[in-house]
Amino acid sequence: MKTNITRLALIFAVSTFAPAAFAQEEKKEDKKPAATDEKVVEVPEPGTIAASIRDGATFSILTKALQATGLDETLGTKGAYTVFAPTDEAFLKLPEGALDKLMLPENKEKLRSLLLYHVLPGTFTMAELKDGDIKTANGEKVEIDVKSDTKEVEDSKISKADLVTSNGVVHSIDKVLVPESLDDFAGLDAD
């Protein structure tokens, strides 16, 4: 009988203090940091196309352009993409003032179209690229030209191929590809 009384006393003691303990835990959870007006900067997932481009030594201009259009978020998450990535040197070959004009906020959609012209839905390694036209993410087609020792997209040489990422593959190219829809914009010429 003493054992039953002891058990009851213990249950009573625990039940008396438990609500207070839970109430204190709830109060701790209520102490959330105050919301701020600061914008949360999305970081591409490690190992993605966007992260690989951002971390590449020769893609600082492409990284800024992707960020300006929000495509860094798309290429920084799940998916399957092939990107023909123009190097900084390739961007510097654009007509004088063209890049500055493309980077203006009012030309965001034109820049986005230009960048999407460098993106293929699906993953294509160098060995999988074949002669012919292929539709890009902006809806226009690019021409793949397979030669005996090189492969080109439009007339841009693929200089470094097959950087495999968690969401696709990146091929470095030596010239910015210009879609026909942007022909004559800021001195750009679709070849």
UniProtKB/TrEMBL annotation:
> Does the keyword Signal belong to this entry?
yes
Per UniProt, the keywords (alphabetical) are: Signal
Q: Which parts of the sequence belong to the FAS1 domain?
A: 46-177
Name the InterPro entries on file.
Answer: Adhesion/Biosynth-related, FAS1_dom_sf, FAS1_domain
One short Pfam family name for this protein? Fasciclin
- The signal peptide, as residue positions, is 1-23
PANTHER family recorded for this chain?
FI19380P1, PERIOSTIN-RELATED
**The protein, known as:** Fasciclin domain-containing protein
Query: From which organism does this entry originate?
Result: Luteolibacter flavescens
Identify the taxonomic lineage of the organism of origin.
Answer: Bacteria, Pseudomonadati, Verrucomicrobiota, Verrucomicrobiia, Verrucomicrobiales
